[in-house]
Amino acid sequence: HIFHGCTPESYETWLRNAVAYAADNPAVGSESMVFINAWNEWAEGVYLEPDRKFGYALLAATQRVAFGSSGA
After folding, report:
1. What DSSP letter does each residue of 47-60 carry, written as one string?
2. pTM for the structure as a whole
3. Fewer CB in a 10 Å sphere around the end CB: N or C, the chain?
4. Has residue 60 been placed in a domain?
5. 44/59 Cα distance (integer angstroms)
6. CB-count exposure of residue 61 (10 Å: 0-12, 13-18, 19+)
7. Interval 3-18: pLDDT, tens
């Protein structure tokens, strides 16, 4: 998938939906998992590493989803 115009807010919504889907559709053995592919794949445009545009916002969004808090 290619995400055009990705923002921390749209990423957080997407990640919340992915986590909800995984919880509703667990893999064999009742485990649910969401795998995040890249920390710093700048050449491929896939990264969570802090940058000048969003700072730590992508990491903060990941933390909110992973630990169950809501809001920015």
Report:
1. E-S-BTTTBTHHHH
2. 0.81
3. N
4. yes
5. 18
6. buried
7. 678 899 999 999 999 9
